[in-house]
């Protein structure tokens, strides 16, 4: 008997690189589901991979589906979370208690190459139907939302996407979940590097994440006062460009400056291409320039740091927690609205709304990126 398996449910999964704010979103979507909508929320473990594995295990077998529903119904909340086998957990209040500010995602996240296969997606859609799922909420970045769009195109299930990525490279929303926290972490990191840069009169080259977008580096540069930001949008760096940047730093040193923090986004490319991390390539180029014959600061040292996954963790900022709650609220409204279909939540001019998959880039986003860089330069004391 499947006494307590819900007649209808909304499923939520986290996919791709984790982003701070995912747990705050989970808490909000579950609590709003239980308190306001009276609809059960199924948490999917490990993103699309959890769905694919479960769909494969059930494999269209009616009895296997009955057993799965029994398992879900008898291992709700924390019992489900600690069971290694179960990839689908019926969430309750206690299971999302105390997680709001925690980085990462308690349900786990993964990248799932198998999901590129249409037949695999068809199996997953059959599974969701069998589990009485009336809407699937997909939280993640570009690749994850592409998966969500494909599911929406291939079924009549409502698929709601939630932008969550520290890269802030989704141009249909002003902000994605996790960006504010990552910027905060970068400001904290820059503050630490400044202490040692000042003491040793050094140039610190710090490589940020962000994929092909320079937004994370730009925002962190503007918020931390880092002396220089190098972003990918201006095209690949040639040797002459790196010399020009080094000359700028040297010029500042000549005018009495003692140190410099340089933020370089991981999307920056070089001409000719380089295999090593950007921070190391720039360190060599700068060091070579500073040590040229007759240079004024031949003992000026450069140190590189690749900040890496540090940027994805840590305590979620209030701003991200608030955005998570607003996205969850918007997602539930979209699920309840029978006159509208699938879509993605977006923050546009401080309004959270649903936009269709494939919504064109907002021109304001590119303008804002440009303005940020200009503002950073105008605020410089160099
Ligand atoms: O998309 C988020 C992100 O952190 C990027 O900034 C970075 O390039 C990538 O994920 C790193 O991926 P992984 O965690 O798989 O190494």
The CATH architecture classification of the largest domain is: 3-Layer(aba) Sandwich
Q: How would a textbook summarize the main sheet? A: 7 strands, mixed
Could you tell me the mean pLDDT? 96
Number of strands: 11
Radius of gyration: 24 Å
| Number of continuous helical runs | 12
Q: Return the structural class.
A: alpha/beta
Bound molecules: 6-O-phosphono-beta-D-fructofuranose
Question: Globular, elongated, flat, extended or rod-shaped: what is the shape?
Answer: elongated
Note the run of SSEs as H and E. EHEHHHEHEHEHEHEHEHEHEEH
Q: What is CATH's topology name of the largest domain? A: Rossmann fold
CATH class of the largest domain: Alpha Beta
Strand content: 15-25%
Q: Kindly, what is the distance between the CA atoms of the first and last residues, rounded to a whole number of angstroms?
A: 73 Å
**Residues in helices, as a percent range:** 40-55%
**Count of domain modules:** 2
Q: Biggest sheet: strands side by side, in what order?
A: 3-2-1-4-5-10-11
As residue ranges, the low-confidence spans are: none
């Amino acid at each position: 008997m499947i006494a307590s398996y819900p007649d209808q449910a909304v499923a939520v999964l986290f996919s791709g690189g984790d982003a701070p704010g995912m747990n705050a979103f989970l808490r909000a979507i579950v609590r709003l589901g239980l308190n306001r909508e009276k609809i059960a929320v199924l948490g999917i473990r490990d993103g699309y991979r959890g769905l694919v594995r479960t769909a494969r295990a059930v494999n269209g077998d009616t009895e296997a589906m009955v057993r799965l529903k029994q398992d879900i119904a008898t291992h709700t909340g924390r019992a489900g979370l600690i069971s290694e086998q179960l990839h689908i957990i019926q969430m309750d209040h206690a299971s999302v208690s105390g997680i709001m500010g925690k980085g990462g995602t308690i349900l786990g996240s993964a990248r799932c190459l198998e999901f590129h296969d249409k037949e695999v997606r068809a199996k997953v859609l059959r599974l969701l139907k069998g589990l009485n799922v009336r809407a699937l909420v997909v939280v993640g970045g570009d690749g994850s939302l592409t998966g969500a769009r494909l599911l929406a195109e291939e079924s009549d299930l409502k698929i709601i996407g939630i932008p969550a990525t520290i890269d802030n490279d989704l141009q249909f929303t002003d902000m994605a979940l996790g960006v504010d926290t990552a910027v905060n972490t970068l400001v904290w990191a820059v503050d630490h590097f400044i202490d040692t840069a000042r003491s040793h009169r050094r140039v610190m080259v710090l490589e940020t994440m962000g994929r092909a977008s320079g937004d994370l580096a730009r925002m962190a540069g503007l918020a931390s006062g880092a002396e220089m930001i190098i972003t990918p949008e201006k095209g690949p760096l040639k040797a002459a460009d790196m010399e020009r940047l080094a000359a700028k730093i040297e010029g500042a040193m000549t005018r009495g400056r003692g140190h410099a923090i340089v933020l370089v986004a991981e999307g920056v490319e070089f001409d000719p291409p380089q295999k090593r991390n950007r921070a190391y390539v720039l360190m060599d180029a700068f060091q070579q320039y500073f040590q040229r014959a007759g240079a004024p600061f031949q003992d000026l040292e450069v140190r590189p740091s690749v900040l890496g996954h540090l940027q994805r963790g840590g305590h979620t900022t209030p701003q991200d927690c608030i955005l998570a709650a607003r996205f969850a609220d918007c997602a539930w409204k979209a699920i309840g609205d029978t006159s509208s279909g699938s879509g993605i939540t977006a923050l546009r001019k401080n309004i959270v709304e649903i936009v269709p998959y494939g919504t064109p880039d907002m021109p304001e986003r590119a303008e804002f990126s440009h303005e940020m860089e200009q503002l950073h330069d105008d605020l410089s004391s160099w």
